[in-house]
Amino acid sequence: MIERGDEPGTKNVMGGVLYRQPTEKIIPGWWRDAPVERPVVEERVWMITEDSMLQGGFKSNRYAEEPYNAFTVLRVKFDKWFADKATAAGALLITNTVVEDVLRDENGRIVGVRTGREEGEVRADVVIAADGVNSLLSKKAGLHGELAPENVALVVKEIINMSREKIEDRFLLNQNEGATIEVFGDSTARMLGYGFIYTNRDSLSVGTGALLSDFIKKKLKPNDLLEGFKSHPMLKKLLDGGEAKEYMAHLIPEGGAAAMPPVYTDGMLVVGDAAGMSNAIYREGSNLALVSAKLAAQTCIEAHEVGDFSARTLSRYKTLLDDSFIMKDLRLYSRTSSFFHQKPEFLELYPELLMEAAHTMLSVDSVPKQDKQRQVLRQLLGKRAPWELVRDAVGALRALS
Fold it and tell me: Which of 154, 326, 354, 359 has the fewest beta carbons closer than 10 A?
């Protein structure tokens, strides 16, 4: 394992939710020993406009009991623990080292990597590229070129320190329980993306992000987006009194199955974000990386048994991926990002109409409810023709199913 930071986790960024079951495929019962923050018992979804909010969510006591469903984690703590498990099992960890290129033999097959260190060539039967969304190794191997801005999201995040008691009081949690909040609408200045707040033991993970192409188009600085998110009147009270301790930014793949590069070649496999694996609809990324890495390891074992590390043998990895939930889900939601990106009314018009409808129906002003219903319908039809509403609804259902 080659790590460019001082230790694993110092250079890694994620929102902060890790699912129990996929990780258990690697280390059974891992959560009993790992430095997790809180088990997630509630997932909330908010839609905000300038002065209003609609909210929904799901909470279950089952998620507060073993074996749990998901945990919030901090990568600096978790990744060091995870790497220690790997080294205890026999892996060699090389830190403070940047991989700069792949090594090839006389036949063009990848046989290792070249690092920035003096005499820094590391040879291997198979190289597994797990170097993030803008994978240098994949580029050097000729598997993909520059990423299209509409196929990646730029996410910025802060860790905000806050006492355990204050977190549990503000988020209505029992001791050591955790919650997540995904926030849509004005959280991203109506760009395609969302904001989030996740509860750790004694801190909050707070962030927001959108497609890189939208940042470029709007000429908006990521930090300004985050500061606007934190200061929104519907969110500010949750964060009051907290102290920002860390700031980070990261690219996330958003193109779905259609934007994935090839995931194997002679002597190399590509996993996780480096292979474009991310399901933003369900906030899944790390679990896809874990499972794809396990399938890559299985492929390497099979290749070792036959003594062949050519693309023909390593193509077994793609077969395993296609048979897994990873590719089935990525194909299912492959149209989601492009559809909503082409339909700004879902980010601008419809949230406003929903808020106005809620204001109208919930305001008690001696107006008969039937008249209010007619008023809501007039507001809706004044902005969108009936055929446009049907077209948008059908399009959204197709993009999400």
Answer: 359
Does residue 149 sit in helix, strand or coil?
helix
* pLDDT recorded at residue 224: 94
**Residue whose pair of structure tokens reads 């060091």 in the numeric block:** 80
- Name residue, tokens 């193109």: 255
Tokens of 134: 């803008």
**Residues sharing a CB contact under 8 Å with residue 280, sequence separation 6 or more, in sequence order:** 153, 252, 254, 336, 337
Give yes or no for a contact between 31 and 38, defined as CB atoms under 8 angstroms apart: no
pTM summary value: 0.92
Q: What residues of the chain score a pLDDT lower than 50?
A: none
Provide the angle, in degrees to the nearest 10, between the axes of the packed helices 286-306 and 316-323.
140
CA-based angle 34:36:37, to the nearest 5?
A: 160
The β-bridge partners of 249 are 156
Give the per-residue pLDDT at 208. Answer: 95
Sign of the Cα torsion 372, 377, 378, 379 reads positive
In whole angstroms, what is the distance from residue 385 CA to residue 392 CA? Answer: 11
The pLDDT, as a whole number, for residue 58 is 96
What number of residues does the chain have?
A: 401
- Tokens representing 264 are 């194997």
Q: Given this model, what pLDDT does residue 12 score?
A: 85
In a 3-state reduction of DSSP, which class is residue 202?
coil
